[in-house]
Amino acid sequence: MRxxxxxxxxxxxxxxxxxxxxxxxxxxxxxxxxxxxxxQVFTGDPQNPYAxxxxxxxxxxxxxxxxxxxxxxxxxxxxxxxxxxSLFPGFIDSHSHSIDGGLxxxxxxxxxxVHALNELxxxxxxxxxxxxxxxxxxxxxLGLPLEFWSHPDVLNAEFSTGAYEKQxxxxxGMDGHTAWANRALLQRAGITADFLKKLTPAERxxxxxxxxxxxxxxxVDAGTEKVxxxxxxxxxxxxxxxxxxxxxxxxxLGITAWLDPLALEYVLRTYKLLADKGELTSQVxxxxxxFAKDPRTELAGVQKTREAYKNVPNLHVSxxxxxxxxxxxxxxxTAHLSKPYKNSGRNGDLLFDPKKFAELCIQADxxxxxxxxxxxxxxxxxxALDGIAAARQANGNxxxxxxxxxxxxxxxxxxxxxxxxxxxxxxxxxxxxxSPDTIEILKPYLDPEIYKWQYPARSIxxxxxxxxxxxxxxxxxxxxxxxxxxxxxxxxSEGVLDATQAMPREAxxxxxxxxxxxxxxxDSIGTIAAGKRADLVLLDRDVxxxxxxxxxxxxxxxxxxxxxxxxxxx
Length: 570
Prior knowledge:
It contains 20 helices and 27 strands. The strands form 6 sheets. The chain has a 6-stranded mixed beta sheet, covered by helices on one side. A 6-stranded mixed beta sheet has the order 9-10-11-12-14-13. A 5-stranded parallel beta sheet has the order 18-19-20-21-22, sandwiched between helices. Helix 9 (236-252) crosses helix 10 and helix 12 (354-366) packs across helix 13 (378-395). The longest helix has 19 residues, at 2-20. It is an alpha/beta fold.
């Protein structure tokens, strides 16, 4: 009888709460207590991964668990019925060039529009007509497929003659490393046959050259350096517009915090402009670039930058970015491989001296700076791990989440080293699809023993490594559910890219929450737990159980940062 009475009273209590709940699933504003209930809650905490209710007070989470448990902590709380929808910690992108992404949002970005060469000319013409593509007197188009660079004759026929004969045109690849300049722009930049003749063979590798020794317009990495000065620097008004566009985009995808891994001066300035207006409420980690040429001097410069921005609310300059190599796809082939590319006999470019890099890692680790390394080729991955290993050996385990990002190819003997060295793997698994980018412009040129280990996420995970979620936006979309779908299925237009490397869905949920917070070294976010910031995202379906195809179509209903709703679906 007592058990029956206890169950009856418990049911009556819950029913009373439900009846008292006057709010729908939409988050309400205000500084008072709120309880979100009737939800599929994923907490991001492996010890207690699921719940049904969450209470927040102002900027903080105060309780998570069952509705009766949570209600005890906030007796006078407003109650919001989430109608069985999924409530997650705010998603965190551990590698997002968000300010560059914002600039692309207000520029002529073709990434979601132009997929074939015959679609390019109308887009360029419209970008010139509207002025959206004009950077000073240069017509700049962003986000183009890498396959386009295999057709320089077509590009020159279209954009170096007629209406574009005297108009400087710069087409940028979606990878952020490659570009194509028309003849007018090449001439202005001084990229001529005579210029190319004076370069070393290695230096000429950054430029496309036709059979007559003339530049064909293709540029990769260092090859773009002569063009960049011809583009005007963005004004503060343009930077602020870009910053706001970046916030809007991230919030629409449920992304509430991110790591910006190439914090050049204009990037940091944009975050300060947002903060000065009270608009930077997300936690943002930003890493200046260093080159491992003169570690002591470079790190002194980073510390000076940290000092300059230390009082910007929610901005943390807490690490460094290093490029170990470039990109692997033809015709670039600047990623550093352990075995040479079949067509050139070269191994690509290792962008630092291993001894200098090890010195940099030891000093940075000692100074409390996170080391974040772009490493795509298997040779670059190994050298990056070696440098971090030197820091661990010299300094002991500092606990800093040093990180490798991209890791398109990894040697199997390096899989366990991620766990052994405490190195986070920030992977862009939206790229792990069977498509021309991973097959036609890669497979014919790589040794089979390297090619077979492409985006080996599951092997790193199974060897105990921490995978964090990352997009490299605007190189590709920051849509979390597109990336999780791709990580889970590895499907593409040409089949499946090595199904043995498919990631479990739950592992990807941790990647975009708890693990990315770890990569940022910010412990106030990443999980739904008492005391954490109320960074939350509500999704329109039960993402824990649906098919991958349904998961891919998941929509964000609202996004909350520090207890305030910053995005609401229309």
